[in-house]
Specification:
Layout (H helix, E strand, L loop, with lengths): L1 H10 L1 E3 L5 E3 L1 H10 L1 E3 L4 H11 L8 E5 L3 H11 L5 E6 L16 H7 L3 H5 L3 H9 L9 E11 L5 E13 L10 H24 L4 E4 L11 H12 L2 H6 L2 E5 L8 H10 L4
Parallel strand pairs: 4-9, 5-7, 5-8, 8-9
Antiparallel strand pairs: 1-2, 3-6, 6-7
Length: 274
Amino acid sequence: MSRKTDQAWKDGRYCADDGTVVEIAREVDACKVATRLIKPDEWPAIEREARSLVDPAHPPLQVTVTGETTLAALRRLVVDERRDAVAALNFASARTPGGGYRTGANAQEETLARGSALVASLERAPRYYEQNRASPSALYTDHAIWSPAVPFFADDAGVFLATPYRAGVVTMPAPNRGAITAATELQAVPEALRRRIRCVLALAAQARIRHLVLGAWGCGVFRNPPETVAPLFREALSDLSWSRAFTSVVFAIYDPSPQRATFAAFQRILTPPA
């Protein structure tokens, strides 16, 4: 499927599963041109601007935890519920645009990449990957990529859609806890997660996103425990600025394991019983 996806955004068109020929060249080009690389020293200014945009009278944030994939949550919000200003966090590889989507990997970033023109945008920000590849630590760096209005044109099952839709994507790596052995670096993981979660929220707020799809960021192959990550999201979203910046935050926790431990942890921590 990755070949068909690549061909779609390179050609600027594709044939949907129902036979419709869909033109996306204009949308892909616009997304590529507007792609932003964010360097670590830019975060203080982004956060200041984002906080200045927040309306204290904005209705309280709605937080939900669902069993959807990120791709399904985006499509539900944009297509089914007709929400505007929707974006998602890409649980990103620090070193390769789209992670292993061209080699058959099937984690969250790969499903986003196979269903959209996201990689066309990511490849416009090579410095993100160069800096992370040059880093001696699997903590990685605080670089990020903002991809506005990414065209999405396939679903999780690989069905190419007759009507594509668009959503923003924030690409930022979690620390790869499973690859860290030094005790001092392991101790630095929670603070790196805390700092980058704040960065993700600030960037989305600066872009005036109203509906944000998050999830079990870094809890898969990077082996960060849900019991660490979920409380850090809860802490960040309790900040008055971020709790008033967004209308809704969806934690899309696709967890096919029999115990569904990751889903259960996020549900318990982020949507506790009243």
